Amino acid sequence: MSVGRGRIAAGALAMAVVAAACSDSATTQVAARRVRRAHASTTSSSTSASSSTSSSSTTTLPFDGLRPGDAGPKVAAMQQQLAALQYDVSPDGHYSAATMQAVMAFQKVNGLGRDGVAGASTLAKLATPAIPGPLVPGGGSTRVEVDVARQVLFFYKSNALYRIVSVSTGSGQRFCVDGRCATAVTPGGSFRVSGKVGGWQTGKLGRLYKPSYFNGNIAIHGALSVPGGPASHGCVRVPMNSADWIFSSLPIGTAVYVLNGPHVPAPFADVPPPTTVALPSSTSSSTSSTSTSTTSTSSTTTTTTTKP
C-alpha cells in the first residue's frame, strides 16, 4: 500500500511541476507544495515499516525442550521413557550427566544429533523410537555388542537386551608412546573378556576405571570423558555411572563382539596385556606380569602399559 501511494504522489508531483512550467499561477504553486509534503510523509512511513519488519525477523525463538540442569516432572517422564527402552538412566527428575549420556545414546541409535540435549526432535522421536535388534543373534546368553559406527554398547543378559550405553572408541588418529607409534582403532571381531583390574589404572596415555580387557590392551572401562564420537586410543570408554555395573557383569570369558570396526591388529598387539585380577566371587589368585606381588580376591593392580 505504501509503495502505491508513493507512486501516486510521485505522479502528482510530476504533474504539478509540468503545470508550474506551463503556468505561473499561485494556485498551481500551492498545489505543488502540497504534493511534495505528501510524498515526503509517504516515504517516511514506508522506511519505518521496513525497519520494523527487519527487526522482527531476527527474533530468537525460545528453546523448546529439556537440557542439563533442568529438573521436574517433565525430566522424570523423559527418563522413564528412556529407562523403558533399556537406556541406562534412573528416573529421579534431575537432568544430570548420567541423563545426558542416556539421551546421547538414544540419539545415536535413532540417527539424531549427538549432543545429549533433548530438543524438540529428540522428544518427538521418543514417541516413535527405533527399537534396535541384536547385532549377533545367538551370540550368547550374556554378551556385549559394541557398534563402532553408532558408538553404542548393547549389553545382553539372559539373552535379552538389558542396557544400552553410549561409548567412545578409537579416534582413528596416530599416537606415539615410548618412541613407538600406532593408529587409535578399536578392531572388529569376536573376543572374550580375558583380564580385569579393579579400581583406577593410570597409564602413560590416561586413566582407566575398572577395565575389562578383551583384545590385548583394549578394554571396556569407565572414563571421565565420553564424547559423542570416537576419541579413545582404542579402548571402549563408558560413562562413569555405567562403569561399576558393567565391570561386575563381565566375568572372565564373557563374549564381546565389536561390529563395524576395522579388522586389523590391536594397537601395540605385541605388548602383553595387564594383570588379570580375579573377581570378588573367585577364590583363586593370579600373579602380576608387571610386578612381583601376588593378588587375590577383589584386589587392585596398577600398570603403566595400558592404552585408554
Provide a quick synopsis of the model.
With 308 residues, the chain is of the alpha+beta class.
Structural notes for this entry:
The chain has 308 residues and is α+β, with helices and mostly antiparallel strands. It is built from six helices and 14 strands. It has helices at 2-22, 26-56, 73-84, 97-109, 120-125, 240-249, and strands at residues 143-147, 152-157, 160-166, 174-177, 180-183, 189-192, 195-196, 200-203, 206-215, 218-223, 236-239, 255-259, 286-287, 294-295. Strands 3-2-1-12-6 form a five-stranded mixed beta sheet. Strands 7, 8, 9, 10 and 11 form a five-stranded mixed beta sheet that branches. β2 (152-157) and β3 form a beta hairpin. α1 packs antiparallel against α2.
List keywords for this structure.
alpha+beta, 30% helix, 21% strand
